């Protein structure tokens, strides 16, 4: 899978909390059609068999749109299903070890909150880093906010692309301009929206 900085412009992270009886793949397809550039499957409560089934469906769906498909945290599953990559946090497997498992061709993203963590992630083979929460968020109970100043310092310190995440919406996304980010990662701004394609297109417009 080719991977570039442009793939991180509008990065959609899934959450089945807002499905209300719909299929996750249908919500993701709506977002893909409207312009998301990367998809991460994030599941905290799904059993392994269901997680794998969902991963295979979304992997094939993203491939049809030529959009990178990553899995959150579950390195073994990402390897098993042939996902384009994986995203890990500071409390997950150490980034260098993840790179050894995935091999050199797969995409590796690492969550960071400090310049020191960012530099270490880069050193360990990360292809991009996620920085957040840049705004208050309800998607992650233990999320600590990262200041705009720290976000800008991280962007300046590393040579790999940076994605901002956490509480980003169409109302506040423009506050991130000038920080040096390659793009934004969002959950509720797309998947909690009453009209996913409209919400996706609005974010794309504000990022251009």
UniProtKB/TrEMBL annotation:
Pathway: Cofactor biosynthesis; thiamine diphosphate biosynthesis; thiamine phosphate from 4-amino-2-methyl-5-diphosphomethylpyrimidine and 4-methyl-5-(2-phosphoethyl)-thiazole: step 1/1. GO terms for molecular function: magnesium ion binding; thiamine-phosphate diphosphorylase activity. 2-[(2R,5Z)-2-carboxy-4-methylthiazol-5(2H)-ylidene]ethyl phosphate binds at residues 137-139, 167, 187-188. 4-amino-2-methyl-5-(diphosphooxymethyl)pyrimidine binds at residues 40-44, 72, 111, 140. It catalyses: 2-(2-carboxy-4-methylthiazol-5-yl)ethyl phosphate + 4-amino-2-methyl-5-(diphosphooxymethyl)pyrimidine + 2 H(+) = thiamine phosphate + CO2 + diphosphate; 4-methyl-5-(2-phosphooxyethyl)-thiazole + 4-amino-2-methyl-5-(diphosphooxymethyl)pyrimidine + H(+) = thiamine phosphate + diphosphate; 2-[(2R,5Z)-2-carboxy-4-methylthiazol-5(2H)-ylidene]ethyl phosphate + 4-amino-2-methyl-5-(diphosphooxymethyl)pyrimidine + 2 H(+) = thiamine phosphate + CO2 + diphosphate. Coiled coil: none annotated. Transmembrane segments: none annotated. Its cofactor is Mg(2+). It is an enzyme of class 2 (transferase). GO terms for cellular component: cytoplasm. Pfam families: TMP-TENI. Mg(2+) binds at residues 73, 92. Keywords: Magnesium, Metal-binding, Thiamine biosynthesis, Transferase. InterPro entries: Aldolase_TIM, ThiamineP_synth_sf, ThiamineP_synth_TenI, TMP_synthase. Residues 10-190 form the Thiamine phosphate synthase/TenI domain. The keyword Magnesium applies. It comes from the Bacteria. Its EC number is 2.5.1.3. Binds 1 Mg(2+) ion per subunit. Belongs to the thiamine-phosphate synthase family. Condenses 4-methyl-5-(beta-hydroxyethyl)thiazole monophosphate (THZ-P) and 2-methyl-4-amino-5-hydroxymethyl pyrimidine pyrophosphate (HMP-PP) to form thiamine monophosphate (TMP). PANTHER family: THIAMINE-PHOSPHATE PYROPHOSPHORYLASE, THIAMINE-PHOSPHATE SYNTHASE. This is Thiamine-phosphate synthase. It comes from Alloscardovia macacae.
